[in-house]
Amino acid sequence: MEALLKEEHYTPHLEGKPNMLVCKNLKKVYPTPKGEYVVLDDLQLKIRQGEFVSIIGHSGCGKSTLLTMIAGLNPISGGNIQVDGAPIIGAGPDRAVVFQSPSLLPWLTALENVMIGVKQVFPKATKAEKIEICKYYLDKVGLGNDFDKRATSLSQGMQQRVGIARAFALKPKILLLDEPFGMLDSLTRGELQDVLLEIWQKEKITAVAITHDVDESIFLADRVIMMTSGPHAKIGDELFIPFKRPRNRRDVLEHPEYYDYRGYLIDFLNH
Ligand SMILES: Nc1ncnc2c1ncn2[C@@H]1O[C@H](COP(=O)(O)OP(=O)(O)OP(=O)(O)O)[C@@H](O)[C@H]1O
Q1: CB-based contacts of 16, cutoff 8 Å, min separation 6
Q2: Of all protein residues, whose CA lies closest to atom 23 belonging to ligand 1?
Q3: For the chain, which end, N or C, has fewer CB atoms within 10 Å of the first or last residue's CB respectively?
Q4: ipTM of the predicted structure?
């Protein structure tokens, strides 16, 4: 079991890669009618370029708080966050977020929804180039025949595909995912995990995904980070997942050590 915790068993694609994300002494305090509530305290986290990290922890421990702080959408109370060596100042297209609900603009088509971000990130590109970028990512998520469908006519799974395309089309340095498949049925969830991993593998983006699903956390990640329960939550433990990439669900599930990894995470959550 000890072997599971050692970095030397880490996946080879991260060898020699610098840190892309560093959270140092991170603190978050929310004011409440009963006084200050310290959600995160002295949290330390380093994520390497191209690494896929899953975050698990009990409901309310502060996972979304951490993710929205990294996204620059939630002010930091103490400590700092650096992306690619520079402290973050607010939100920016270098950090794309995929939320549980994609919140597409309903009156726009799939392509137009992706285009909103593309226009901001590639202002100098021609219209044709921008359309090409949108179509490329929509095609990658399996919506090659649905560019012109309005968001309202897309199923929940298709809308989340647009959400993923929209995030990748920004060409971010870090992809932040907050329970991205939480609202989907298990079949669609599995399909979208595969889609996500396929594009991530190709784009070599650093990714951080919050999930409540232990199997999903293992299947997606190079490392699973376990947060302690709040208040004053921090990183409690981490597990390196060395299964070879590209990953195949059946291979992962049939791996002789799979249930050791799963059991380790479930034990953490039960204590
Ligand atoms: N704006 C806010 N003001 C006050 N308290 C807040 C605010 N946002 C979140 N909290 C509290 O901070 C704690 C952490 O919330 P957060 O949503 O980050 O947890 P989480 O781990 O993502 O939860 P879940 O797994 O249920 O989504 C919770 O106790 C929550 O009630």
Answers
A1: none
A2: 60
A3: C
A4: 0.98
- Interstrand relation of 95-98 and 86-87 (parallel, antiparallel or unpaired): unpaired
> Is 59 near ligand 1, meaning CB less than 6 Å away?
yes
The protein residue with its alpha carbon nearest to ligand 1, atom 11, reads: 60
Domains of the chain: 2-89+223-270 (3.40.50)
pLDDT of residue 13: 85
Q: Which helix (H) or strand (E) holds 35?
A: strand 35-48
pLDDT tens, residue by residue, 186-204 = 999 999 999 999 999 999 9
Ligand 1: nearest atom to the Cα of 233: 14
Does the beta carbon of 259 sit less than 6 angstroms from any atom of ligand 1?
Answer: no
Atom 3 in ligand 1: which residue has the minimum CA distance? 30
- In a 10 Å sphere around its CB, with 0-12 CB exposed, 13-18 middle and 19+ buried, how is residue 6 labelled? exposed
Instruction: Give this prediction's pTM.
Output: 0.95
